[in-house]
Design a protein that fits this description.
mainly alpha; 81% helix; globular; 143 residues
Length: 143
């Protein structure tokens, strides 16, 4: 029973994370960044600025070392990173967008690995992220 309550809470948080992009696009970038910092801290007890300072391998290691980050938390992290990647893409900050999207892809894949489940919506999200990364690599590599 406790697990289901936890699952329901995480599901609502993931749904809220999906609304983040619309809210962020209307904000000044500095305000949006502060909102993201708060979400990372309150929802996942992660320091967003610390995560941004890590290279890809260190980012993964940091996430894997956190024993309190289960599959649902990784799913939520993936959602936040996905929304950030889209936000930076819209703001034409392509390198940062690509990094966030690659991290989101890893978080989703790791969550799937832990749960050993298949989701069509997750598969669709993965395709969208991969397409955005490809577009950045093809058209915006120098930005």
């Amino acid at each position: 029973m406790i697990q289901r309550k936890h699952s329901d809470l995480m599901e609502r948080m993931i749904q809220e994370a999906a609304l983040v992009l619309a809210r962020l696009l209307g904000l000044d970038e500095a305000v949006a960044e502060e909102e993201l910092n708060i979400m990372y801290h309150e929802w996942l007890n992660l320091d967003r600025q610390e995560l941004e300072s890590l290279d890809e391998a260190a980012f993964r290691e940091k996430c894997l070392q956190r024993t309190d980050l289960d599959a649902q938390h990784l799913q939520l992290l993936g959602e936040l990173l996905h929304q950030e990647g889209q936000f930076y893409f819209e703001k034409k900050t392509f390198i940062k967008s690509k990094i966030k999207l690659q991290q989101a892809l890893w978080a989703f894949q790791e969550a799937d690995r832990l749960t050993q489940t298949f989701s069509f919506s997750q598969q669709q999200k993965t395709k969208e992220i991969t397409a955005l990364i490809s577009e950045i690599e093809l058209h915006y590599q120098q930005d």
